[in-house]
TrEMBL record, chains A, B:
Record-given protein name: TetR family transcriptional regulator
Gene3D superfamilies, per database record: Tetracycline Repressor, domain 2
Keywords: DNA-binding, Transcription, Transcription regulation
GO molecular function: DNA-binding transcription factor activity; transcription cis-regulatory region binding
Keyword DNA-binding attributed: yes
Length: 198, 198
């Protein structure tokens, strides 16, 4: 490949393909360079270290989750309905990934374990989307919480079974949709009534 | 050791010590027999297979969690206060185990992965304890839920971050007690108000 045609995006495509073929333990920057028919020095001009490339791969993967969710957070209309749809979409996106390509999902989960900073930024982004929906629900008098940011973090954590990769093996359980619905009902009731002095 | 003095309890003590020393991958029934100075045939008279011994070890370990919690479930008094204390105690018990003996905790978590039936029975037992507290809260008019069993399962799942071993690495996070308190506030508000038609 002509070096000047090499964009970060093409390197990330190649890195994903290499990860798909070899897995995280065996994949190297040299494999990515070989796949693109460039020298590994060329890769390093775009990503100064293997860790930088790994983080960029993780970041792009996580954006594929956060971008469609951001669209829901920015919509108008009932906050309750949007928050429900937001969590359903989050679970659907994760579940599709694990069911369609279980090995790639495992690889990306392993990458995420190493790219802690990227994952923390991703979670902060998701919680801020939830906070935006909760805040609009407070404005529309659907929700009665004093601190939307705090409530958003609590909701996100209470739904953890339905989005955290550590629970991926539970997502093929036939009861999972019922479980999701029941936890959701409990949580939305909590948001509607707000904090109680108990 | 005199074979007739060999109780299942002593075998389980020995098995736990062997697991502590060698870990799950290396520990064998022969190691347990050697530790007790009996033949491995003697062990098999009490536990017909390695899987049976493994399940009994897992069961006893999980009873150390469920037994003190059962006491809280059976107490009188405010359901809200007891339910809060029940989940605090669950988190405290798990956290102590992981902080005091991280390797043994990892070993037991690995055993639990294999002893699925034992773990399922344990979870069913814990959910039924939560259901008993929720039911008493419905009687005392503290909670307004139509099906305490369904609500109990939802509450247990919404609190999963604070008791499932997959989240053990998060339990040393300095924010974990605040997170627990915020998720709890959301959930208890949901139980107090009951299911909403939303």
């Amino acid at each position: 490949m002509n070096d000047s045609a090499l964009t970060p995006e093409r390197i990330l495509d190649a890195a994903e393909e290499v990860l798909r073929r070899y897995g995280l333990a065996k994949a190297t920057v040299v494999d990515v360079a070989r796949f693109l028919e460039v020298s590994h020095g060329t890769i390093y001009r775009h990503f100064p270290s293997k860790a930088a490339l790994r983080d960029a791969v993780a970041e792009r993967w996580l954006h594929r989750v956060s971008t469609p969710l951001a669209a829901i957070a920015e919509e108008q209309g009932s906050a309750i309905e949007r928050l429900h749809r937001w969590f359903e979409q989050l679970m659907t996106l994760k579940r599709q990934k694990v069911l369609n390509e279980p090995e790639l999902f495992a690889t990306y989960s392993a990458i995420a374990q190493e790219a802690r900073g990227v994952v923390q930024a991703h979670i902060a982004e998701l919680v801020s989307q939830v906070a935006a929906i909760v805040e609009s629900g407070v404005s529309s008098k659907e929700f009665k919480v004093t601190d939307p940011q705090v409530a958003a973090k609590a909701v996100f954590q209470a739904m953890v079974r339905f989005h955290h990769p550590a629970h991926a093996s539970e997502w093929s359980d036939p009861d999972i949709d019922t479980d999701f619905a029941q936890v959701w009902r409990l949580i939305v009731a909590g948001l509607v009534v707000g904090e109680l002095m108990v």
